[in-house]
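So, can you check this one?
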Amino acid sequence: MSIKSILAKPFAKLIAAKFYKQSNNAVAIQQKVFKTLIDQASKTAFGKDHNFSKIKSYEDFKKQVPIRDYEALKSYIEKVVAGESNILWKEKPLYFAKTSGTTSGAKYIPLTKESMPMHISAARNSLLLYIAETKKTAFVDGKMIFLQGSPELNEKNGIKTGRLSGISAHFIPSYLLKNRLPSWETNCIEDWETKIEAIVDETINENMTLISGIPSWVQMYFEKIIERTGKKVGEVFPNFNLFVYGGVNFEPYRNKFEDLIGRKVDTIELYPASEGFIAYQDSQTEKGIMLLVDNGMFYEFIPSEEFFEENPTRIFLADVKIGVNYVLILNTNAGLWGYNIGDTVEFVSINPPRIIVTGRIKHFISAFGEHVIGKEVEQAINENTTNTSIGITEFTVAPQITPESGLPYHEWFIEFENEPKNLQDFAAKIDISMQQQNMYYLDLIVGKILQPLKITSIEKGGFNNYMKSIGKLGGQNKIPRLSDNRKIANELSKFKI
């Protein structure tokens, strides 16, 4: 056992004690964060335009600051990108996290000297809380890999710009640099398939103990390891026992990963976004991930079923309820105000505040008023593949409104690793799971507005080929679980069996 692993335990214990003190006093902490954010931004252009100096309560804030998405906030962001100071937050940002938007083109999300350290400390603390709970420290002595975007940065009016994961690579603590893979040169490779091959080259003979990344792209890495060696990942890396992931729900991948690895490993779920590090898994036994209440963000919540109404209910942490699907709204120390990040969450615990990410407010199916969300389709898959031989590589769902014959239906595009013996029976079981979860969907089936769902099998590698065809293979890109239109479905149909 190294000095590093010995020292990790007492340090983890200190961090955990502070973390749970905050989490168990979450509402008061959020009120304090709210006041701090308003005070510090009161002299910015946005603060002056929205009378921050007169805001004394959350009720005042709601009257002054409307809910906005990136497009609605763009006039302010463009001034920040142009190099102006004191627009959304004090001074200029340190970085822009560049992301791809569907309607906006490139998005430039500011990262400030106040917000950037909170991204880094949250990632570190998620590992420390794992150590505090499990007392497992062996992983700190081995090699760790973080599958991410290129750390090479561009400049926009004197401000460095890149993907969040690439920016974060510049903040790796010195005590982890010797443990970290892949090399800087390999991380800078833009072509994902070339990059994966280079990562395999660098890691295949190393003592890998921690692997991190979006599950779909880590899966590609694991498959390349098996292709090269003919062995399960757990045999190639016998000390690999911790997988850290974010970006998508891991449950639909869990069976596949256990098969690729050859055994179970501990997992830590993260909820990082360019806009802020929102939550992470603090426990291997508790359901959900802990909302970070003292991480430079004040959270608001709007019931998703009201979101598109003219005056939806808008609340903060003091008034949330368990089991309600909320659209998450952020106010941050990077200068995002009333900002709709696009995600939906549900509380599984309020004190302390643990959530599950249920999907995207834009990624749903309600072509017939069914209000199907990502959580429901993922649960239907999990219920009918767990403890079976059925293996699923990837899937997405879209409505088929105008079929050649018969009633409309939901079409599930699934790439199987191991197909069910009877695809129709499998589809019927999935459909029953959907009916049990969603009463609107049940009513449409019973009322013969919809016929039961149909499955379209996609050829192996089809989803990756689709992502490659639109220039989004690898990195932080991920396919939506749900679409309310046929755009993705029509393209995926080119890869059906």
About this structure: The longest helix spans residues 3-23.
